[in-house]
Write a structure and sequence with these properties.
about 325 residues; 10-stranded mixed β-sheet; 16 strands; about 25% strand
Length: about 325
């Protein structure tokens, strides 16, 4: 099945030698700022000849990887399958597995890969760039440098053993890769509706970060790199680290009331949130399981039992 039947992409290629960079957004259909950032990159390459003429290598841009989920305004498409859990997919599977297979082909043919995300409808993520703690020390160092070069305030290296992700496919193909998370919920929507990723100065952090990656890889000497500010780098190879949707699971269904702010440092045992029953005054508390920075917080009034409340990476293993 042709890729074009599943997703649209734009590729800008130079006759100058250089790496093949793949940037994807919209793995999940309710993560809008990354999609708009990739669209902005496409618009800039289309409208600025100096960008195209100064390019070394090629950049492939996919603004909405999961169009079925995007049309639903949902994390998943109509089949209910999470695209970020079924890589490498299969050409004979359900619609999402076929999509994962086509995207896997794009990833495997790249030299470097960037996967842009947000917290979607219900979670909000402190701006971060992450990578797997690859067992190949050369790839690991490349990924660490890519994540720092993107220019966000938090960098997170996590378990290399999570399966079904775009980054696990990149891991198996030996392609250095990072993922990016940027806000979510109403904060993401507010930025998107304000046109934050459109051609404005300074560039939106997602747009600037992608340009930083190109500059870092030597793909374009004329791109003005936004030098990263000092960032926290946390690496934690424990099994399951990086799986945000299972961290601090809610003990009950009800109304969610946060007790901490995104980016705040908390201590082990500190109150993160309360869940209030919809028909009584009963409350359930959720306490932090470790000390560290709150990099994900729920940002939605409803919560179901088992839903993630918050993510706090540990500061040391």
């Amino acid at each position: 099945m042709a890729d074009a039947a599943l997703f649209e992409l734009r590729q800008f290629t130079s006759n100058r030698a250089g790496p093949r960079l793949l940037i994807i957004a919209g793995i999940h259909g309710d993560e809008y700022l990354p999609m708009l950032a990739v669209k902005e990159l496409i618009d800039r390459f289309d409208s600025h000849a100096e960008l195209r003429e100064g390019l070394h290598g090629s950049v492939t841009l996919i603004p909405i990887a999961n169009r079925a989920a995007y049309r639903r305004g949902n994390r998943c498409g109509p089949d209910g399958t999470d695209l970020a859990r079924v890589f490498p997919g299969t050409p004979t599977g359900d619609a999402t597995e076929q999509l994962a297979c086509a995207l896997s082909d794009q990833i495997s043919r790249s030299d470097y890969f960037v996967d842009l995300h947000s917290g979607g409808t219900e979670l909000c993520v402190f701006p971060l760039a992450g990578y797997t703690l690859h067992r190949d020390p050369i790839i690991l160092e490349q990924q660490r440098k890519l994540a720092i070069a993107f220019g966000l305030p938090f960098v997170w290296g996590t378990s290399a053993d999570l399966q079904g992700r775009s980054l696990s496919l990149a891991r198996d193909c030996g392609v250095p890769a990072i993922y990016v998370e940027y806000l979510g919920a109403y904060r993401e929507l507010a930025e998107a509706m304000a046109g934050a990723t459109q051609s404005r100065k300074p560039d939106h952090p997602l747009v600037a970060g992608c340009l930083n990656i190109m500059r870092h890889l030597g793909m374009h000497s004329e791109i003005c790199e936004s030098l990263p500010e000092a960032c926290d780098v946390v690496e934690d190879a424990r099994p399951g680290t990086g799986h945000m949707q299972v961290s601090h699971p809610a003990p009950a269904t009800g109304f969610f009331i946060a007790a901490v702010e995104l980016g705040q440092f908390v201590s082990q045992g500190e109150l993160l949130a309360e869940i209030v029953c919809s028909t009584s005054n009963s409350k359930k508390q959720v306490l932090s399981q470790q000390s560290g920075r709150v990099v994900v917080i729920r940002d939605y009034p409803r919560i179901n039992i088992g839903d993630a409340v918050a993510v706090i990476p540990i500061t040391s293993s």
